[in-house]
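C-alpha cells for chain A. Residues wanted.
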C-alpha cells in the first residue's frame, strides 16, 4: 500500500514481536517481557555503571538478541569507562584486538555484553546483530522492524532500508545502540549502518581495518591483577603466588584464565598439577599447524578440560565435537532434536534420542566453560577457539565422522517445503551452520536435498546473491563428485538458472537451461517430466529474447504433454499451466490467459491453500489478465487485497511483495487514481533499487512506472529524464528491439510530445510501430497502443488526414481484438472526433464524441481523468504500455 492510501498508524506503545516467519524458534530473548533487569551484584573491584546507580530508571523498551551476561566478568574498569566515553563522543566505535595479541581470546564480545548490561538505563533500544554474514545481518534488521512500529499497514515498508531510515530519523526511538558482533569486512557490513541519526554503533571485530572506519578501542590481555582476581574469585583456596604463576603460564589471555578458573573450580586440582598438564598440552600443540602462538595457552587450557570431559562423559564430548563444525553463532538446541538419517556414534545416538540425557550432556559441557547455554533463547554458543581446539585434537577420521554427523542433523531438520513462508525461520536458522560445516561437500542425498531447499528458500526470500553463491558452490562440488549429469546436480542447476533469471543475468541463465535440457534429453529421454520442466525453462528464455510466439508454442507443447503424462491437477502440470498463462498474456491473448489462470489458481488453492506462495503467484497472473482485459476497477480491488496479503504473509521487503507494490501502482493509475499511484510507484521504486540496484529487472520496471506517473502529474522534465535513463537500461539488458525496450521508448515518446517535440515522438513511434508489428504482429495490443499514440503525433504536427486514417484503422482493429468497450479501444475512439473536427467534419465528430464519452463513463466511471478529458475538445488520450512480467 502507498503512504497516501494508508490510514492505520503504527502502534508504538507496545511494539509487536516479529512475525512467525522471521522469529527464531523459542526466541524468548526478543520478547518485551524478558528484558533484563539492571545488575546490582557488581563484581568486586568494578565501578557501578549508570544502570546500576539508577536501577529505578528501567530497561530499554527494545532489547534484542543480546547474549547472556557472564556472571564471572572481572576487571576491565578502564576499558568499560573508555568505551562509555567513546560511545558518547563518537557515532561508531570498534572494539578491536591489540595488534600484539592477534584475533581471538581477548574478550571483545564479553566486554561489549558487559557494557550493555551496565548501561541498560542509558538506551531506549539495544539490538545485537551477528555480523559474520550479510544474510544474517539483513534477517536481524528485518526482525527489528516491527519493534520500530514498521508493521503491515504502516507508513513505511517493512525492509532493511525502512529500518535504517527509521533509526536515522530517530523514530520512534532516538537513543539507540546497534552492536555488530564479529563484523569481518567493513565494506560488507557498512551498508547496514544507518546513515547518521541520533544513536550509536558498536562493532566487535578481529579485522584491524575497522580502525579506519570507526574510532577504535583496542582490547589487550588482562592486567596481571585482573587475572589473579578472576582466578581467586573462582577458587579462593589459590594463593597469590599460585595465581600469578598460572596467569603467567596462560599469558593473561582472558579466555584461557576463565577456562583455567572453571577447571579448578570444578576439579580442585592443585596448581602445580594443572601447570604440568598445561605444559604437556602445549608441547603437543606445537606439532600442529592450526593454533597460532598466542592461541596456544587458551587451546592448551581447553585441552586439559576436554581430556576430562572425554573421560567422564564421552557423549558430551562428542556433542561438543559436532558443534565444532557449526557456525560460531548460536546453535539452537532444536538442531539436536532431529533424528539423523544414519548413526553417528553409539554414545551420541543414545543422547540425541533422549532429551534428558541431552540436557545432562549440555550441562556437563557448561560446567567446564566449554560453551554457554542461553536458557531464554534455548541456544548453545561455542567460542571459535574452542572449535579450533576440538578440531585440532581430532583425527582425520573423527573429523570426517563428526562433520558428516552435523550434516545429517541439519538434513533431519529440513522442513522440505522452502516455498512455504512458515518454514523460512527454520531454513534461516540452518543456513549459517550449513555454510560453515561445508555441507555442499556431502554426498548424502538428504543433505543435498537440504542444499537445494536452502537455495530455494533464499530465492523465495529474495537474497539472490546468497542463493547464487550457495548454488554455485554446491554445483562445483557435486559436478566434480558425480558429474554434470547427476540427478541432484541437474536439479540444482535448474534452480541456479532461476536465480540468474531473477538477477537479470539472462545470458548465463539461458546457458544453464540449455545445458540442463540437453543433459535430461541424454539421460532420461524426451518425454520424462524432468525434460519437460527443462523445456519450460527454455520457453522462458524465449520470452526474455522477445520471441513471444516461440515461447507460447513451446509452453503450450509442454503443458499439453504434462496433461497427458501426469494429469491436470498434478503440481508440475499446474506449474506448466502457470507458465503457459504468462506466455499467453505476453502474446496479447488476455482472454485465454484469464480462463487458464482462473482454473490454475483454483487448483493451486485446493492443493496448497490460498496463502501459499505458489497460489499467490498465480493469483497475481489472474489479476494482470483482468487488468489487461480493461476491467481496471476489479483489477485494482484484487490487487489491493493481494498486496496486503503478500505484505502480511511474506513481509514488505520480499521480492514478490515488492513486485505487487509496483503492480498496485499500475492498477491505481489505470483506475485513474494518479496521486496515490505516484506515491506507490515512488515507494516501490525506492525499495527495489535499495535492495537490488538500479539495473535489476524489477527495479527497471518500477522506474519506468514512476516515469509514467510523473508525466501524469505534470512533472514532464523529470519524467523525460527518468524515461531516457530507463529506456537505455532496457536496451542494455534486453536489446534495442525487444518488446519491453520498445514499450519503454514508446512511453517516453508521449513525454517528448507533451514537452512540445512532436517530431521526436513521431520518429520514435514510427520505428516502434514497425518493430512491434514485425515481432508481435499488427493485432497485438502493444502495436495497437503504439498506433494510437502515433496518430496523436501526426495530429500534433497538423497532419490531420493521416491521423484520421490511422485512428480509423486502429479503432477497427482494436474493436475486433480487445472489444468495443476496452479502454484502449475507447481511447482511440475518443481521439478520432478530434481528427474529424480538425478536418471540418464537425457534425460527424460531435456524434462520435458524445457516444464515446458516454461509453467511457460507463467503463471507467465519471471521476476518472480520462472521462473528464473526453468531455472537452482539447486533450487527446495517450496510451501507456506497461511491460508485463516475463
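Reply:
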Amino acid at each position: 500500500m502507498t503512504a497516501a492510501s494508508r490510514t492505520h498508524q503504527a502502534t508504538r506503545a507496545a511494539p509487536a514481536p516479529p512475525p512467525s516467519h522471521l522469529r527464531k524458534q523459542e526466541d524468548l530473548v526478543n520478547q518485551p517481557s524478558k528484558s533484563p533487569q539492571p545488575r546490582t551484584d557488581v563484581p568486586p573491584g568494578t565501578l557501578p555503571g549508570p544502570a546500576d546507580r539508577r536501577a529505578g530508571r528501567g530497561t530499554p523498551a527494545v532489547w534484542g538478541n543480546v547474549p547472556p551476561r557472564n556472571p564471572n566478568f572481572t576487571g576491565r574498569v578502564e576499558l568499560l569507562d573508555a568505551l562509555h566515553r567513546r560511545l558518547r563522543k563518537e557515532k561508531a566505535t570498534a572494539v578491536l584486538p591489540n595488534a600484539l595479541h592477534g584475533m581471538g581470546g581477548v574478550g571483545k564480545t564479553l566486554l561489549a555484553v558487559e557494557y550493555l548490561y551496565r548501561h541498560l538505563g542509558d538506551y531506549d533500544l539495544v539490538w545485537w546483530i551477528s555480523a559474520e554474514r550479510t544474510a544474517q545481518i539483513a534477517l536481524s534488521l528485518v526482525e527489528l522492524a516491527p519493534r520500530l512500529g514498521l508493521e503491515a499497514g504502516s507508513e513505511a515498508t517493512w525492509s532493511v532500508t525502512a529500518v535504517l531510515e527509521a533509526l536515522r530519523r530517530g523514530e520512534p526511538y532516538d537513543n539507540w545502540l546497534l552492536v555488530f558482533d564479529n563484523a569481518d569486512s567493513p565494506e560488507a557490513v557498512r551498508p547496514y549502518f544507518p546513515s547518521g541519526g541520533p544513536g550509536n554503533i558498536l562493532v566487535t571485530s578481529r579485522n584491524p581495518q575497522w580502525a579506519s572506519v570507526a574510532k577504535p578501542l583496542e582490547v589487550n590481555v588482562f592486567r596481571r591483577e585482573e587475572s589473579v582476581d578472576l582466578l581467586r574469585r573462582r577458587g579462593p583456596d589459590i594463593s597469590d603466588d599460585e595465581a600469578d604463576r598460572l596467569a603467567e603460564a596462560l599469558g593473561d589471555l582472558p579466555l584461557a584464565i576463565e577456562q583455567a578458573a572453571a577447571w579448578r573450580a570444578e576439579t580442585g586440582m592443585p596448581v602445580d598439577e594443572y601447570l604440568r598438564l598445561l605444559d604437556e598440552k602445549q608441547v603437543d600443540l606445537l606439532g600442529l599447524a592450526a593454533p597460532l602462538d598466542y592461541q596456544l595457552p587458551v587451546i592448551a587450557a581447553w585441552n586439559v578440560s576436554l581430556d576430562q570431559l572425554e573421560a567422564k562423559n564421552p557423549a558430551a564430548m562428542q556433542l561438543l565435537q559436532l558443534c565444532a563444525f557449526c557456525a560460531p553463532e548460536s546453535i539452537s538446541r532444536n538442531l539436536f532434536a532431529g533424528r539423523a538419517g544414519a548413526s553417528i556414534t553409539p554414545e551420541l545416538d543414545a543422547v540425541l534420542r533422549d532429551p534428558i540425557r541431552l540436557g545432562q550432556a549440555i550441562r556437563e559441557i557448561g560446567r567446564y566453560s566449554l560453551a554457554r547455554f542461553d536458557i531464554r533463547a534455548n541456544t548453545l554458543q561455542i567460542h571459535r577457539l574452542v572449535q579450533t581446539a576440538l578440531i585440532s585434537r581430532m583425527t582425520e577420521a573423527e573429523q570426517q565422522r563428526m562433520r558428516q554427523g552435523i550434516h545429517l542433523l541439519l538434513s533431519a531438520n529440513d522442513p522440505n517445503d522452502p516455498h512455504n513462508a512458515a518454514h523460512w525461520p527454520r531454513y534461516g536458522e540452518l543456513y549459517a551452520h550449513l555454510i560453515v560445516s561445508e555441507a555442499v561437500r556431502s554426498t548424502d542425498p538428504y543433505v543435498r536435498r537440504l542444499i537445494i531447499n536452502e537455495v530455494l528458500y533464499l530465492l523465495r526470500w529474495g537474497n539472490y546473491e546468497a542463493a547464487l553463491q550457495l548454488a554455485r558452490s554446491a554445483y562445483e562440488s557435486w559436478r566434480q563428485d558425480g558429474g554434470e549429469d547427476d540427478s541432484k546436480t541437474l536439479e540444482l542447476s535448474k534452480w541456479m538458472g532461476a536465480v540468474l533469471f531473477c538477477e537479470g543475468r539472462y545470458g548465463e541463465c539461458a546457458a544453464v537451461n540449455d545445458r540442463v535440457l540437453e543433459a535430461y534429453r541424454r539421460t532420461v529421454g524426451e518425454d520424462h517430466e524432468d525434460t519437460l520442466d527443462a523445456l519450460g525453462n527454455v520457453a522462458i528464455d524465449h520470452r526474455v529474447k522477445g520471441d513471444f510466439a516461440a515461447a507460447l508454442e513451446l509452453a503450450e507443447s509442454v503443458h499439453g504433454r504434462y496433461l497427458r503424462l501426469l494429469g491436470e491437477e498434478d503440481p508440475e502440470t499446474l506449474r506448466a499451466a502457470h507458465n503457459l498463462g504468462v506466455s499467453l498474456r505476453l502474446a496479447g491473448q488476455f482472454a485465454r490467459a484469464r480462463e487458464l489462470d482462473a482454473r490454475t489458481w483454483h487448483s493451486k488453492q485446493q492443493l496448497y491453500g490460498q496463502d501459499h506462495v505458489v497460489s499467490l503467484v498465480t493469483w497475481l497472473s489472474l489479476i494482470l489478465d483482468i487488468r489487461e482485459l480493461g476491467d481496471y476497477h476489479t483489477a485494482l480491488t484484487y490487487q489491493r487485497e493481494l498486496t496486503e496479503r503478500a505484505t502480511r504473509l511474506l513481509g514488505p521487503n520480499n521480492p514478490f511483495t515488492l513486485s505487487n507494490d509496483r503492480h498496485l501502482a499500475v492498477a491505481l493509475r489505470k483506475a485513474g487514481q494518479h496521486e496515490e499511484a505516484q506515491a506507490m510507484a515512488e515507494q516501490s521504486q525506492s525499495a527495489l533499487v535499495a535492495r537490488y540496484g538500479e539495473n535489476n529487472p524489477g527495479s527497471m520496471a518500477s522506474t519506468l512506472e514512476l516515469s509514467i506517473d510523473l508525466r501524469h502529474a505534470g512533472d514532464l522534465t523529470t519524467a523525460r529524464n527518468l524515461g531516457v535513463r530507463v529506456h537505455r537500461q532496457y536496451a542494455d539488458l534486453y536489446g534495442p528491439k525487444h518488446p519491453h525496450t520498445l514499450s519503454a521508448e514508446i512511453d517516453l515518446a508521449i513525454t517528448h510530445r507533451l514537452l512540445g517535440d512532436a517530431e521526436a515522438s513521431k520518429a520514435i513511434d514510427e520505428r516502434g510501430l514497425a518493430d512491434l508489428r514485425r515481432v508481435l504482429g499488427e493485432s497485438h495490443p502493444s502495436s495497437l497502443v503504439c498506433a494510437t499514440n502515433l496518430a496523436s503525433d501526426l495530429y500534433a504536427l497538423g497532419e490531420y488526414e493521416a491521423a484520421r486514417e490511422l485512428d480509423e484503422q486502429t479503432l477497427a482493429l482494436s474493436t475486433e481484438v480487445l472489444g468495443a468497450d476496452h479502454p484502449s479501444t475507447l481511447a482511440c475512439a475518443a481521439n478520432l472526433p478530434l481528427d474529424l473536427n480538425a478536418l471540418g467534419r464537425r457534425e460527424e465528430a460531435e456524434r462520435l464524441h458524445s457516444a464515446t464519452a458516454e461509453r467511457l463513463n460507463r467503463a471507467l466511471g465519471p471521476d476518472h481523468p480520462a472521462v473528464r478529458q473526453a468531455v472537452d475538445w482539447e486533450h487527446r488520450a495517450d496510451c501507456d504500455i506497461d511491460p508485463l512480467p516475463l
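The longest strand covers residues 92-97. Residues 184 and 207 are 6 Å apart (CA to CA).
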